[in-house]
Amino acid sequence: MSDSKLAGQFFDAAIGLLTRVRDEEAESIAAAGAAVADTVESGGRLFAFGAGHSSLAAQDVVYRAGGLALMNLLTVPGVVGVDVMPAPLGSALERVDGLASAVLDSSPATAGDLLVIVSLSGRNALPVEMAQNARALGLKVIGVTSVAYAENTRSRHASGGFLRDHCDIVLDSKIAIGDAELTVPGVEAPFAPASTVVTSAIMQSMLAAAVEQLVARGVEPPMLRSGNVDGGHEWNGRVMTENRDRIFYRH
């Protein structure tokens, strides 16, 4: 069987986007890493949020082998993933005003903490309101989004603003509107989205920058090991016990 031309084209597209983000967002990623390091060093807590498929990149940095033990998932019932039934309900909930404030008010997040909000379009009420309210509570907010949407679509939030307008630091994924990299004759809809690949890479690069900052400051970052290597469970148990007041995925 010959190699797939379209499969190769997707890899090329993803690599191109990753290269652009690496080169064009380097300063912002370093700033985000420094903000994470500041929060870790000062005793604050870390949270990540994403709705729908954007939640995949948020979940990828929580309770993860090789990840920072202090990162917690901020969950909104019905929107974190595609397991809600019917699935379109999750998309509808992203447009509901007031949901983000209710979630934040009942969460452990407070002033001095940091929240990473992942939203590809950044145009729905939920991520915009989440960023607004988090900053009002005194959290530092990092937004991971595609700036193209803010420049070429209309906001669905009452303010008319996008996620990028309410963040301390914005990381641009460079994903084109529609999130599909390939087209081919005979298929009416574009296909092969790359947002998960690119956004997850941004999240991991941000945390790598944070680790670099912490080490430079003489602070050992609390990292998790794989539970599938000898001693991994014991290591993780110790790290989570030592940081139990900043970890919420065990309670």
TrEMBL record:
It comes from the Bacteria. One of its GO terms (molecular function) is carbohydrate derivative binding. GO terms for biological process: carbohydrate derivative metabolic process. This is SIS domain-containing protein. Signal peptide: none annotated. Gene3D superfamilies: Glucose-6-phosphate isomerase like protein, domain 1 (3.40.50.10490). NCBIfam families: PRK02947.1. Pfam families: SIS_2 (PF13580). Residues 36-221 form the SIS domain.
